[in-house]
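Long-time lurker. I teach an intro course on protein structure, and each term I like to show students one example going from raw sequence to a predicted 3D structure in token notation. This year I'd like something fresh instead of my usual example. Would anyone be willing to generate the tokens for the chain below so I can use it in lecture? Attribution to the forum is fine with me.
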Amino acid sequence: MIGIGSPAFCQTPFTHMLEEISKIFDLWEILAEGEDRLELAKEGIRYGMTSMGMHFQVHAPLSDVNIGSVHEPMRRAAISEVKDTIAMCEKLEIPLVTLHPGFVQGIAFLDRSKAITKTKESLLELSKFSMEHAVELVVENLPANINGTCTHASELLSVLEGTGLGICFDMGHANTAGQVDEFLKEVGRFRNVHLHNNEGEWDQHNRIDDGSADLEKVVTALRGRYKGNIIIESTDLESGAESRAVLEKLLG
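-- Reply from a regular --
Happy to contribute to a lecture. Here you go:
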């Protein structure tokens, strides 16, 4: 199923955004922040499921949520936030949560490997929690920048080792790190896919065919080997609809 997600959506009251999205998409990956914090949006989500035939999956909160924090109280707070998200998804019968790995901040710049170690510790704990709550947790590759971890396939695979967790492949993020081909080698481990494009310099979230990432190569790799949902990550609903038309044409 082709769905949509955008950080911009959580600035608009949930029910209004739901009404607009449902005119074009049957699947919405909710970023659980702002107006779309699950505790606030839960009744709207239930209404969307039961009365509108909508499907949902969730992106765990991003703001100040760092599961790779080297400051232990903050790492524990991040884990608690993700666990709350997973538990609410179980109650709402939302099957999948996408999670960002940790990022490098503060004294972690003195030894970046510590953020990686803390990320793996967090994922081991969260993987057990997600299994107990029957919600699939998947980990997304980050865009290349000074703070990012798991921008390369090898690093993401290293933090996932022993967790049993799958990958959320983000084409735009992989393109900023020159890692699209490396990630596509792991297509068998993909459990969610985010599509957007850029020129390879920064995370622009352009239309899926507007940038240097080879969209046709990605779609060819996914075809026949990937059975999950594809989420178009856009800056707004209009460009998301345009990307959907492009993707449907490529998928035939």
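Some talking points for your students: Residues 146 and 191 are 27 Å apart (CA to CA). The mean pLDDT is 97.
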